Fold each of these.
Amino acid sequence: MADIIDGKIFAESLRAGIAAEVATLAFTPGLAVVLVGDDPASKVYVANKARQTVEVGMRSFEHRLPAETTQADLLALVQALNADAAVHGILVQLPLPKHLNTEAIIAAISPAKDVDGLTVTNAGLLANGLPGLVPCTPLGCILLLQDRLGDMTGLNAVVVGRSNLVGKPIAQLLLQQNCTVTIAHSKTRNLDQICKTADILIAAVGRSELIKGNWIKPGATVIDVGINRVPAAEPGKTKLVGDVAFSEAVQVAGIITPVPGGVGPMTIACLLRNALTAAKRIETTLEKELS
Ligand SMILES: Nc1nc(=O)c2c([nH]1)NC[C@@H]1CN(c3ccc(C(=O)N[C@@H](CCC(=O)O)C(=O)O)cc3)C=[N+]21
Ligand SMILES: [Mg+2]
């Protein structure tokens, strides 16, 4: 049986550290979240996040807009948040409704406030190994891996998924850890065989229980990023499952994250960490400009 990582406990200790640092600041970091429409995965995220933002001593600004919001209205909100001195971090929940141009919205976010690390500026900084804001879920995964594995030099890491929010940035961070990185995705041939080469397997495809126990190298570390809501055994009820068939995988892997209670809580803790990082950088820059 694999060692099961408790992401909730790890995230709690991260948040305790963040709260302690926020308490020493001469200002209050503010985090704005924009939710357009009602994507179910996004709603889980918003609910957990708002409470934890306040718990660590930050201000939480929530903007819930109707699904029919126009591009111009959403752009205007992002610009207002860019200009708002009380807001240090801006997160626009994805996916946006289809009629909106996601790229243009992300491009409008000030890179200094881009706590999701999605702007071209922050993605470029990450790709070049320079300090910017790193996407929260990838950051959470790396913190878990560093805690469990320490030095990852030379390990084979397979990332299943190539999104800008998760797959690509995780691959960059694993490269920085000196892993040999393979990025696989929904069009990859012989996906099972490629997964089986992984010492570190990151599942981030958004397909419930796609990755089976016999795709996993015995003793591998498996990080399940998937948050899929599926029908539960009880009629009318739903449950969260990951991208990994957990009950099989737990028999083969050496270390594994569960869903829920694995990467999800780490994502929120890292969001708060990014908000703190952004706030400190913004306030320090302002101080310099004024002196
Ligand atoms: N721009 C943007 N950035 C995101 O990072 C982003 C997004 N959009 N859109 C939605 C997805 C989804 N997401 C979650 C993060 C944490 C939990 C989470 O805390 N899950 C807990 C609780 C689950 C539960 O409530 O049962 C867990 O896995 O244990 C869930 C979902 C971030 N996302
Ligand atoms: Mg894909």
Amino acid sequence: MAPVYAALAKRPEIFAPTWIATGQHSSLADQAFADFGVKPDMTVELKDVPAGVSAQVGATVAALAPALATSDPELVIVQGDTSSALAGALAAAARGVPVAHVEAGLRSFDFDHPNPEESIRVIIARLAQLHFAPTENAAANLRAEGFADRRIHVTGNTVVDALMSVLPTLPAWPETLEPPQAGKRLVLVTTHRRESWGDQIEGIARAVASISDAVPDAEIILPVHPNPVVRDPLATVLGTHPRVRLTPPLAYGDFVSVLRRSSLVLTDSGGVQEEAATLGVPTLVMRKVTERTEALDAGVAKLVGTDRDDIEALAIHLLTHEDDRQVMAQGGNPFGDGKAGERIASLLAREVGALRVVRSGETEGPDGAKDGTGRRSAS
Ligand SMILES: CC(=O)N[C@@H]1[C@@H](OP(=O)(O)OP(=O)(O)OC[C@H]2O[C@@H](n3ccc(=O)[nH]c3=O)[C@H](O)[C@@H]2O)O[C@H](CO)[C@@H](O)[C@@H]1O
């Protein structure tokens, strides 16, 4: 979201953006804010909220209500598929404030994978009046769900903006990490998805150990997500492996420095799929399904699933068949040119004045005709 906020802030004659943070994943979020030199204008306080999406969303909506009353926005912009994004859209809708969704239209068409992100982004789409889709494929998903074409804009994804904004000033290698040994090839691994918790995370860890054993000139770096459900099985299986480095979550610039030097990425992350594609790093997606099919179509990524044997076999093949790895590396980046934030700000400058809030929850037909009952329109 930082690229959108920066682009809005560059237009003070039109926008007065207020960044409200919810404190979700606060340690990772604070690190990201520092990486981009931004800080929220407001942070809502969430105290003693039980774990789980339902409690998080409920508490965040309740906490955002007074924040929106104070800031009294004409538009609320939410990004992605987190419980915070859903809470922001719900709190805005409750006040009759139009919602714009950044990274709109991503669909795996499977509510269990990823869970809860697929459900969240489908719900946000219903609440949004403006959809900023990263790709034509995402826009097609929204049109197929009946959203009016004039509300959908293909902008590229802001994750590419963020990446391109740090690349020019990145060191060759992070100061915080031992450089790889000469002649070693780097494999970067990240895993954290809820649907992989338990046996599948352990299977991924064992696959990583086997890959390292089979490919002695590969050095594996695995920044460990702080959630103990992820951290503990990884430490148990890989904690003493000689050529596997478990690190704390890396600062964004450090992570990108490692990614840029990697020969192969194994990940279940969404953003990393897009960053790797942008940098031309072949990627094995350790999920049952991905909403980033554009990377598969481009050939820069392959959907390998979460089965240990499948991950081992394909990773070892690519690390021992350089021609095949190179073919993937040439796949290209389908996620945008790094100007999504600027495009979104320009579109908002044109659109916000004309926005009508259709609160029936019904979708508008292509010509803007509505079939909902009861609606409130505001311009
Ligand atoms: C279902 C899904 O795919 N949803 C995605 C999900 O995000 P994700 O899956 O991409 O989540 P992570 O993998 O946790 O974060 C990744 C980012 O973290 C950086 N990173 C990573 C490790 C590290 O050590 N240091 C770092 O700096 C890395 O460069 C990257 O930018 O939610 C977002 C918000 O709703 C969505 O927009 C997005 O679609």
